[in-house]
Amino acid sequence: AKTGLKFLIKNREELGADRIANAVAAHEFYKGNIIVVDFGTATTFCVITEKGEYAGGAIMPGVVLSVHALAEKTAKLPLVELKAPDSILGKNTRENILTGIILGHAGAVERIINEIKTDIGKDFTVLATGGIVDSVSPYIKAIDYINPLLTLEGLRFIYELNSNT
């Protein structure tokens, strides 16, 4: 299918449809050099240049996956509902888990964004999306825009691009 992007990566067939859709929508609707951060089961990073080149990205375990891993792989830690911690300094196990996972994840996301910017040496617009974007994004200063519907917008654009041929 046509996407309007040039892919500068190895093994394009390994790239998930969600990441392609995010990249297409980001390039089409936001312009410039863009980093898309998608907060889903995994947290993914997609780098799109102002020329419409998908330059690469990164993948890390997502927040929900981390919450489940702690509950499943430790003897005493419970599965907690994902919501902002009541305070930064947790006063019980639930708050400790939420603070550690949400702030730890936010810190890792900030670091990856900063490393991408430093490595490439250009300014980027940072766009966030995904099912839990509202839980994590308030803790990440590097995010410029939030669009929870980015993937769907990208799928729609790809459909339109391919049905008008």
Core attributes:
single chain, 165 residues, alpha/beta, Nucleotidyltransferase, domain 5, six-stranded mixed sheet, 5 helices, 43% helix, 19% strand
Could you characterize the architecture of this molecule?
There is one protein chain. By secondary structure, the chain is of the alpha/beta class. It has one domain (6-157): 2-Layer Sandwich (Nucleotidyltransferase, domain 5), CATH 3.30.420. 43% of the residues lie in helices and 19% in strands. It contains 5 helices and 6 strands; from the N terminus they run E-H-E-E-E-H-H-E-H-E-H. The protein has helices spanning 17-30, 63-73, 93-120, 133-136, 150-163; strands at residues 6-7, 34-39, 42-48, 53-61, 125-129, 145-146. The chain has a 6-stranded mixed β-sheet, sandwiched between helices. Strand 2 and strand 3 (42-48) form a beta hairpin. The mean pLDDT is 94.
